[in-house]
User: Fold these one by one.
Assistant:
Number 1:
Amino acid sequence: MAEKIIIVKNVSKTFPKVVAVNNLSFEVEAQTCFGCLGPNGAGKSTMMKIIYGKCTRDEKPMSQMSIFGYDPKDQELKIKYQSGVVPQDNNLDDELNVIQNLMIYSKFYNIPARLARERIAYLLDFLELSEKANSRITELSGGMKRRLVIARALLNNPRLLILDEPTTGLDPQVRHLIWDKLRLLKKEGTTILLTTHYMEEAFQICDTVMIMHKGQRIIEGPPRDLLAKNIEKYVLELLDAGALQDKFNDSMREQVRIDRSQQGTRLFSNNYDYLKTLAGSMESENYYLRQTNLEDVFLKATGRGLSETQ
Amino acid sequence: MHRRRIINTLRKLTTQTTKLAKESKRVFPPLYWRLYSVWYRHMRVYTKNIFSNGLPPFLEPLLFLAGVGLGLGTYITQSMEGLSYLEFLGTGLLVTAAMFTAAFECSFGTFIRLEFDKVYDGMLASPLTVNDLIVGEIIWAGTKGLFFSFAVLCILAIFGVIHLPYSLLAPLVGFLTGTMFAVISLLITSFVRTINQLNFFFTGFISPMFFFSGVVFPTSNLPSYIQPLVEIVPLTHSVRLVRAVCANHYQMIHLWDLFYIVAFILVVGFFAVKRLRRRMVN
Ligand SMILES: Nc1ncnc2c1ncn2[C@@H]1O[C@H](COP(=O)(O)OP(=O)(O)OP(=O)(O)O)[C@@H](O)[C@H]1O
Ligand SMILES: [Mg+2]
């Protein structure tokens, strides 16, 4: 059995007004990518902060954590020394330029200056930022800043890379570039823990996906299994359910699962032909028939309506 | 057969030692290095604009001396505590310069790093603890105090207001003063919710201190009911100590001053770290 890099058992985090993480347990194996999905306010960032010691978990006798065998409660330095963190907000030092930002951090890790310069040159090249080496932080685009934060997290050659929404707000090219780099890192032995709102991202790079809601784990598994086990194969999305009103009867309910919300009505089924026949009677701009994806699983698992914490 | 076993054991041993070497390299930096690296970060940011940051500490005492030496001072002919007014005020400036720079650094500076720039959030993801971060910052503010004191010293020495070599020790008092005002400013900052509240700290605490700690005039003639207050505030002790250093004339009371300063730094520093920790780790 592969080594477990992260073990989290019965961990909770209570803020004055809200329980951000509620009795959560999960494990991450070495050299895999573990993705954490969940609506805004689900507690993803809080969970990550607990892992690298930025948040303290609730004192509970049952709760247990082990990152490389260390507990963040009293061995945060050992964990942080072997991890790289990309927080949800870029927190680069605006007062310094690109190279200086990285040089300062290399000092925090006590990397000798000559080695640090080599490593920085390599990382800037790796994340395609070499041209910006001497730019001010304020001159960088959002995507460049994000890549720079990733470079910063890689300075110490971490065994564990923690990424909180690494690609939110980035264009497709940059997103694909980051995915490629993450795949490469995983191949070289890095363990990756990431959160994302992009189902595509989870599907592309995660070996295991956990869907969280209100601080709790809803489901967990390899992305493909989640699809196979938790949702029908096809979905017919109706923009105007009125057209099919007369067909909503018991015989239809045997064939499909109906999901109604403000955004429209969705009919889920494993029977493609049946959905196709249903759709046949409608104008083509009124419906969309497709395979289900992780997003459908996500919406099914976390509920379609907004909760007050989002 | 026998040989193969030996080779095998040997091989196992070497892989283990290389593994061990790898492991032992995985040891986080020691305390002194962590403090130094935080200090280094602040130093780099400060020296990045060497001209606009490095010149004012020299210009300010120059202006002060010009104003006092050419203007105000000509009206004040009485000696103060046995010093000419220029020397009296000049030696006071050695520590007020340190006070102002450290107080700004650890109030507005710290608040901005904490709330707006989120600099600390990033640093805390690297192998640094909250304590490293805050203590490193205090040491940096002390260093700035030392530098500002030194700048005043240079100007005073150039114009022959004070005498070398004894006063060369004055920047050390500047360091202590900077450290003292760093810890009190951090403690205040830990209570502050919006940056404007810091203005109260400056108008209510720092500015009065400038006038009632024996910098501008001797406190001995102040009404007796104010005297205990004078003795409580930190700057009084810095001023007395720095004048003793410049005159190379020490008394028992200066031991008390030194004790006060060190105790102040330790006690207030302890609470500052404790309270700021709660704002950085939740
Ligand atoms: N420092 C804090 N003090 C009080 N409440 C907090 C704090 N940080 C987070 N919370 C609350 O904890 C809950 C979980 O927040 P968290 O940031 O972990 O969510 P998230 O899953 O990362 O959401 P998002 O996708 O929007 O980033 C939210 O209800 C949030 O309001
Ligand atoms: Mg988040």
Number 2:
Amino acid sequence: MYGWQRWVFSAALCAPRGLALSLLESAMPAAKPAPPIGAAWRAWERVELALDALFGARGNPLRHLGALGFLFFWVLLATGLYLYALYESTTDGAYRSVDALSATLIGATVRSLHRYAADGFVAVTVLHLARELFAGRFTGARWFAWVTGVILLWLLYASGIGGYWLPGDQLAQWSLTATAEWLDALPLAGLSIVRNFLSGGQMTDRFYALLAFLHVAIPLTLLFGMWLHIQRVTRPDVRPSRALTLGTLAMLIALSLVKPATSMAPPDYGALPAAVPVDWFLLFVHPLMDATSPAALWGMAALVTLLLGALPWVVRVRREPVALVDPANCNGCGRCFADCPFGAVVVEPRTDGRRGAGLARVLPELCVSCGICAGACPSSTPFRSVAELVTGIDMPQLSLAEMRAALERSLADLEGGPRIIVFGCDRAADVRALARPDTGVISLLCIGQLPPSFIDFALRGGADGVLVTGCAEDGCYYRHGNTWTAQRIAGEREPHLRVSVPRARVRVAWAAAVELGRLGAEIEAFRSALAKLPPAQRAVRRKRKEVALG
Amino acid sequence: MRNVLRYAAQVLLYVAFGVALGYFSSYPVFRVLAPGQALVRLSFSHGAQPIGPCRERTAEELAKLAPNMRVKLVCPRERAPVKVEVEMDGKPLYQVTAAPAGLKHDGVSTVYRRLPVPAGKHTFKARLADGPDGEFKYVAEQAVDLPPGKVLVIDFNVGKGGFVFVE
Ligand code: HEM
């Protein structure tokens, strides 16, 4: 990317944000996310890892719940267009047209796909909420995704419940009446909406037109909300992998054929159906209100919304320092901008007269303090022989100089058999528990903070091998950190690991927090493999080390 | 072999997801009323009488007003609450006093209530008072046969002479 393109891109990314969010910015909660540790998260992670073994990380539904939400939305949109074309929004037409639709195989299947996609959408959204909650991914700069997510819940339910009103059957009647009873519990100047649904008189053509309009307008608002929801993450995971997409669609189609959605009888205002087939994903609110009261349902809805919405401010965690740019070491190359998972770095034109295309600037309110930018900076190399090691963009809580000092200490302390340096991450399996005389460990904020040159440096400094670990594939707590690291090591992403580094001496083994035991085994397997490497190579390294250490 | 097992397990999990979606999209069914019950819905919106009588302004009071505002009769804006009592087979079923809506209490009083009752033949008697004196000026009685699941709406509409029983 050329410099000017980057500025245009940065500006385009920031302008709408700036407009829409500057008001909210001042209210930002503490920036350091809560630790994802907790019994719920550990249990969740175990299930997720078990599913990895079956589906692979890319095909694992639990790792791509938000993306599945998008998939369900697109299914709803496509099937919704078809239904809309055949729907008659009139008193007599509503029931008749939906019933006629269900009489054909295609119509019945499309209708059923529409219904089951809505249910699936609710299911994955609730799971997505639970996952972000358990992982503690709602504090700091993430408050925005969290709060917009809570609003999405309302829009999702308003869209889904509104859909059940359109077929004009007894289920629609029941849901409309219950919703009206609920709305009437608001102190609205003696309004009695429910009176409209006690006899068929008010179910006019215009009323059906209104229902149909609502069922277009609210889902479109939902789509806008979904767009807003992912504004603060870069490269959002909105497209499930091909396997996950095909699997989900096949499941929906099979279900639609096996159990097509049907209507109840047309409404009878003089009698209630003995039993209503409730869609518990969407319509559970009606029985809940029946068991309590309209006011209680309002109370519960308000409480859940407030508790969830306030969570980023209620769970206060220590605010970690954000990334800092050092203008003297930044030439505006834009790699930090490209790698930041939260769009918290922009590159701007230089005004300080120094060399370079531009200058990086950190937007503190968007920064989650992961350090991935420091790992992306080409100035972040431990080989530089400057008096004080300073890089272009760095983390005050674990600077590049501190990382190098820690590595040098580790290297100097290594003793015995094939000597391994393990680079890990604070969010994944805790490598500190694996330190041994022949195994030096360095835990970073995120594995994405690791500049690949550190691997080279460790090997030249006396390590026989370097093992890089971090969160499970597609499971980086900070998003993208492990992916970028793997790509840097594979030479697919800048800054890359030098080609001359012997790949047999570098191993990547991701391990989630609950996989410490497996990581230990991986290290031992690596050690055995290292022991089998031709000694010549090791001798060269020793010699180099002696030279290096003088 | 391992892969075959993996795919089989994947299919199984997709099927489990589908079964969960299919099942909970309509089961367990919800019983709107307990077996053997019918429903009475008491529902109306009615603007009650003003809380007090109107009176004529004195000549002195009138003189103080702007010439275009000199209306003789002044009436209180506030309305009386509406009192309703419903009896079934001679026994009280429900009673309520509904305050008028609005900050100045000058709006309508609205009542909506679902009253599940045992199915069968019943005689309903309803009374309504809408004046400051609380006197039940509207009274109506109706015998109805309510099979299970039947809905009886008891509405109130002065234009239709008071209580209306809609079966
Ligand atoms: C319509 C429903 C929703 C859809 C389609 C949706 C979709 C998404 C997507 C695609 C992402 C980006 C994931 C990534 O690339 O890492 C995301 C992130 C997120 N979502 Fe949702 N979401 C929905 C509802 C919710 C709800 C109800 C909540 C919680 C209240 C929520 C909380 C979050 C949070 C906190 C993140 C940020 C994760 C991070 O910062 O790493 N979302 N969502």
